[in-house]
Amino acid sequence: MLPAIALSAVALGFLFVARAAPATRQVPLDPLNPYPTKPRVTFRSDGTFKITVFSDLHYGENPWDAWGPQQDVNSTKLMNIVLADEKPDYVVLNGDLITGENTFRQNSTKLIDEIVAPLNSFRIPFSSTHGNHDNEPNITHLEEIRREQLVAPLSYTRTAPPGVGGEEGPGTYWVPVYEHEGDAAPVLVLWFFDSRGGFSPGENSTAVPDWVDDTVAGWIEQQTALMDAAWGAPGDVRAALAFVHIPPHAIQALQPTLNSTQDPGLNADLLGSGSTQATTDSANLGKDQAFWDSLNANVKNLHAVISGHDHGNEWCRREPTKNVIFCFDKHSGYGGYSDAGWGHGVRNVVFSSPLPSDGLESWIRLEGGETRARVLLDQNYN
Ligand SMILES: *[C@@H]1O[C@H](CO)[C@@H](O)[C@H](O)[C@H]1NC(C)=O
Ligand SMILES: *[C@@H]1O[C@H](CO)[C@@H](O)[C@H](O)[C@H]1NC(C)=O
Ligand SMILES: *[C@@H]1O[C@H](CO)[C@@H](O)[C@H](O)[C@H]1NC(C)=O
Ligand SMILES: *[C@@H]1O[C@H](CO)[C@@H](O)[C@H](O)[C@H]1NC(C)=O
Ligand SMILES: *[C@@H]1O[C@H](CO)[C@@H](O)[C@H](O)[C@H]1NC(C)=O
């Protein structure tokens, strides 16, 4: 799959670039080759591709007590067990990496070193979205991204161009996945969106909007136009998959329509105020609509949209207004709210081929190896 690479050389190369030219780092010369110094992410030689999603890791709770750090020891153990068993081709950390309410300004990004350690040691390419708990007086999405880029040679996390993403929402980007290393165009684009939320940094902290900013809608349109011009229209050869920490507002309406046979998995969190984007404050209801419209209008062959945030839910369901499949992650971290019997684990997503017409198989895997809620996400789903 991945060529053997000298991790330390990649890391040093990055450090050199970051120090020599911090401004140009954000705007790669070729916008369609955003990772010139990293190995290309590719399908396996048998035509499959496996993504494992860790979500809501919530590192850093109560560092002044014994149980907080013990939770993180447990979460790291879970990551090591899952990575050794699942051997994914790519990992997504889908937001709320850190419980920022509990962290200290002087060392909050050290938690990123702990979180990425298993990914570094297994040498798995990965990237992150960020959640409402990753924006707090002592930590921001941008600080987490910068730290991850510094300490994780196989991090593909990027920031949006200046002016895109809104207040405290820099973590919007895409990652190309190729069928073969030398191909001219990718067969899959992974999209990552920053749904913001939480609180602004510093002493007079205020609430940050908890939805993907309007500016992202235009950026999606612009990026897909660039891709089509360079690579050709997606047609029946280029697919997409999207990740965003807080589920879009439209997901709230799906819960009453769930069919536990078709849409298996834990359904223990009743979606209410704050469970989906732009529902915390009634004055802002539905403010993620521009993003949701643009994503579904411009990103063709979108297999699914995947979110975390609501730890008690792990189902998938087709969203009828956009005819797109939505799936919840599985709560992975020992930090963050939980309840008896919910367990901790991951969502696996497996592409059986690079063809957009072939569905994805997806299921929940718990720490101990138990699996459940297996679904085939294809045209016939729901
Ligand atoms: C951060 O500093 C606090 C206060 O000194 C300490 O309790 C905590 O363990 C430190 N956390 C990390 C991740 O180093
Ligand atoms: C850590 O995991 C063990 C099970 O492996 C569990 O008994 C313990 O309660 C967990 N500790 C915390 C603080 O979550
Ligand atoms: C932020 O960090 C400062 C300095 O370490 C600490 O005094 C303060 O309590 C932290 N704030 C919060 C909200 O935890
Ligand atoms: C925070 O607000 C207080 C009270 O209004 C003010 O005195 C202080 O200067 C503010 N701090 C910052 C960093 O703006
Ligand atoms: C739930 O799905 C099953 C399997 O597709 C179907 O047989 C059943 O009629 C559905 N139930 C409802 C209430 O729609």
From TrEMBL:
Signal peptide start-end: 1-20
Name of the protein described by the UniProt record: Calcineurin-like phosphoesterase domain-containing protein
One function term, GO molecular function aspect: hydrolase activity, acting on ester bonds
UniProt keyword list: Signal
Domain Calcineurin-like phosphoesterase residues, every copy: 49-312
Pfam name, any one: Metallophos
A GO CC term attached to the entry: cytoplasm
Superkingdom, taxonomy of origin: Eukaryota
Keyword Signal: yes
